[in-house]
Every structure is written in structure tokens, then in C-alpha cells.
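Appendix B.2, paired examples.
Example (i):
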Amino acid sequence: KSGERYLLVGDYHTQMEILTSLSRILGVRSPVFVIPSKALIVAIPFLAVTDILSRAKPKLTRTMVTNGLSSVFFSNIKSRQVLNWTPRHNLDASLAEAVRYYKETIK
């Protein structure tokens, strides 16, 4: 329909599922633990001070933590129902394609 919006996205995956899949594709060790969100929030001011003292680029900012902790869900249900659409690739295939692209284009 004119004026309608459809999200053509794959299935929902948690950040840990994405990181585990990406680790497998890259051949690196998968994350073994998750830092509790409250600990990250408390650590931000201390990290900022160490970055200022060492004149380093911030490794972790409040925005990074907030974005990482937010839960945003995108659904493709409308696209599947109205457009009879299905994703062409699963998570592993999509990430492998992205990794291949970045390896070829970013040196």
C-alpha cells in the first residue's frame, strides 16, 4: 500500500547470539561472561577519568553503554504477512557476508 512501511529484517537475535556467531565466523574465542549493566554504569566515570589522564580516546562512553543496554526489537511480521516476504539469509550467512565485504573493502 502507498505510504505503508515494511521492515525487511531477519529474525530477532540477542547480542550474545550475534557475538557468538561472529566469533565463530572470525575464528576467535566467543565471549565467556557478561558484565552486569549496573557495574558498567558505575564504571563509566572512572573510565572517563583514566582516559582524560592518559589522554586516550574514550574506550567506553555513557552513550555506548546506554545503547548497548537498550532493547530494540524490529519485527518482520508485517512484511511476512502482507508481502509474503522471507529473509534470504540466516544470521550466520548474513554476518559471514558482512565480514567478507569488510575484509575486501577495508584494508
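Example (ii):
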Amino acid sequence: PVLLALGPPMGPAEAADHPFFREARLLAAVGHPAVPRVHDAGVDAGRAFVAYDLPEGDRLADALRSKQRPALPTLLRAFLEVTAAVARAHEAGVLHGTLAPQRVLLG
């Protein structure tokens, strides 16, 4: 599944330096299986858009609050995937601003 994120109205000339597209370029630069892949980005009919993989899974925060918490091997696997994705992002020159259990998906 693909998620289409709609940005603010703008013309093609504004798109090059707009933060909406800067974030999409950074996401595309990471290139790690745990990070959604960007398929397309642009301006269509005056509206900015980015199409990327729809992340699937349960939020780590919800799983930790659940009465049936994930098994330790599941949590360790998630930890290793997150740290590998963050390391890859750093290699690509991307710093992740908010890394919290609400933003980590198990799946």
C-alpha cells in the first residue's frame, strides 16, 4: 500500500526549496528497509504531494501499554532495526528529530 501525503498549495518554482519536499528528499536518501520508501513527489494542479510506502504494524508505545506485552526477542529485534535505520540515516546526513515509541512500528 502507498500513502499519499498532501502538502500546501504551491507552484513548481516554490517546490525546490520548500520544507515539505526537503523532508521527502531526506526520507528518500535514507534507503533502509525500516524507513518508508518514497515513490514520487511533485506538484499537481497546484498541490504538493509525496507518495511513499504505507508503514504497517502496531505502535511500540501501544504494545508496551498492552496487557500482553511483546516478548523480549520481539522488542530486541525492533531495537536492532531502529538502531540500524538511525545509523543509515546518519550515514546519509539525516538526523532524526523525534524518536519515540509512538513513532516505532512493530511488524
